[in-house]
RXLR phytopathogen effector protein WY-domain domain-containing protein
Amino acid sequence: MLIYAQKVPRTKRFAARTLEDLWISQDKTADDIFKLLKLDQRGKNLFDRGELSTWVSYVTKLNKLDEKPDEFAVLIELQKRFGNLELAKMFSAALKNSGPNNDLISSLQTLQFKRWLADGTTPNSLNTMLSKTPILGGFDFRSVDVHLRYLDFYRANK
């Protein structure tokens, strides 16, 4: 019933909050909800799924309950699954398509870039890391896009 209520514009917010509160009361982890929402299923683009925003909202809410909230909590959870550089490539690839979560993906990519900047990652060091990433069949064009997007971010924020 709550899942259906999330699809109705008038009840969407209420249903989402109620579900999140239910999951928290059941001590569900970010990983539990990732699987419950079937975001871990292969063959489906994670970033084209409406459930992604539900999961991000839940992780954010869980993070706020921590003694020391971490602004990078969502990013950390995604990096556990996909790795730092692969996640960056996934963001860049997803942003090339217009999908329901483009604003969310863009904000997650910005958060990743903010973390890289705080960690002292320069565009040159990122380029070195990206060039060491193995790829079957040759060159990964997503790496170029990640590098160019980070270069723009770096110049604007350094």
In short: The radius of gyration is 17 Å.
